[in-house]
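Pasting as-is:
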Amino acid sequence: MRKSKRRSQRGASIILIAALAILLIVAVYLAFRFSMIEGGSNEVRNVVDAAALNVSKKAVQIKVPAGTGYQELADTSGMVGLANINRVWGKAYLINANLQSMQSTGQVGQNASGNAEEAYQQAQAINDQLASSLMNKQALDLYFNQVANNRAARMLGSDATVSTDANKSWATAMVNRGDESNLSLLPQQIPPGAKAVTVKRGGKLFMAGYTPFQANNHPFTFTTFHIGEMPHLCGDSYFEQNRNDTNPIPEARNPLPNAFEESGQAGTSQATVLAAACAVANPMRSYNLALPHCYVSVTFTNTAQWFVEGKQVKTTKYGYEPQTYWEVKQYPLPPAKGGGKLDGYASLGNEYKHPTFWGVFSSLPGDHTVALIPVLQRLQEICPNFTMNQLVGLLTNQPFDPNNQTYYLYPVYNTPDLVDPQIKCSTPANLPGWLNPNAPTDGTPLSVMQEGVQTDIPNYDWENITGGSSPQGPHWTKVSGNIFWSPGTGYNSCLGTLYVTRLTQCYFNGP
């Protein structure tokens, strides 16, 4: 009996030990599987982070055609993407701001409003097409899988690869609202009567991102890109706070996203792991607010009025160099004034007896820099840091050609992206190919300066009376000028024309 009992106890012990061994093996296996799944989960998260970051880097490669009106702002392939879309909106803004400024001075021409509207709609069409492309799941999945497919989650199994979630769309957001865009500017570029929302970073002024403001009753929204910041991951909660579908920007019309979120998954027949990541894009390129292919023109016109005995008898034009004109011929004088017939002559065009544009422009009395103020502002829309001293220096070095009445102020560039403007001045014979000298100014003229009146200088006259009591009588000239500024929106490249109108009144009298 005792021996049988001892055998029974040993058998029970063996069973208990075996059971414990099995439990230990199961625990070890489960711990191993947990550690593998946990490690695999970390692998998937790392892969998804890297893949989402690749999307934020490659998003700048998604581009659409520049379309009519914005070709000069396109890249070398004629396309617009995240890098240069703010340049497009900058041009559309300046055109509409110019119209708003023209409205404040009552100088809106027949086509100005339609031109500004067309510029806005063209920019919006480019924006909308780009927005659609940036939310295209197939394109974004391609960039995601470029990284994800090459990084297996080996701890989940040798056949476990990471890929996008086919059933989940990409989410987008507009992060860093109110911070800088990649479009810098100077205050003098904004025409009088218009405004913009700006932010200062690193001592420079930028258009504020994701902060809509109005110009010509249209909302303008620029995309935020931190200057000098590389594409990077961002927190899920911050991304969710700035999603456009759940937290839209008031008044913004289809703003472009600068952040992207996607889910990735990997698994085997035994386990599947999901992970999501958010990343912020940045083209790492900034531009100046500018209208690259635009110009300002200056036109001179001369009129002579001829008077005999206080009565205007003729109106003529005269040229741009000294010349004698005989426009009063054998005019009969009344007997009370001695009778006879009067011939009236004048030396006209003496105000152009200068070798340079500036000498001609400032040949009559007055501070002519006053007339150049609106010209300078428009040129600063092309070249932001252009100054009055530079403008006067340019006109001083420009030879005056008496065979040309119109001169053009326009930019030239050394780089294909048109970011290094140098303002030049020339006659129609030396214009760049993009400049259409016949483009109409879509504003109306308004006087910006009246030149001082001079008597008998620089133009003068004389008379000769035949058959009368005296060979001549009192005669004199009055020389004056009025300078008009006709602004342009820039839609047709013309930002405005300065009209320098000179008037010489020639007076003749009998004895």
